[in-house]
Amino acid sequence: MSEPDDTGSRAQQARAICPFLTTKQTAFHLGLAPSTLKGMRTEGRGPVCRLHGRAWYYHINDIEAWSNARRKGGDHG
């Protein structure tokens, strides 16, 4: 039996423990394939990211800001 999807809780926990997510974690959080996120990074269309050593990391606040900037519909204030 699989566990229920608790992405919001996991993001909150990541923020408290370590605010940086890997490409794979970020892609999962955004509902994208890691290859899609990598392509977006290469083209400069994805969330702000940082190169730490040889790995790319995304700060949870940058992920959320990028996602919020793409909201459509509803009441934006």
UniProtKB/TrEMBL annotation:
This is DNA-binding protein. It comes from Sphingomonas gei. InterPro entries: DNA-bd_dom_put_sf (IPR009061), HTH_17 (IPR041657). Signal peptide: none annotated. One of its GO terms (molecular function) is DNA binding. Coiled coil: none annotated. The keyword Lipid metabolism does not apply. Keywords: DNA-binding. The keyword DNA-binding applies. SUPFAM superfamilies: Putative DNA-binding domain. Residues 20-70 form the Helix-turn-helix domain.
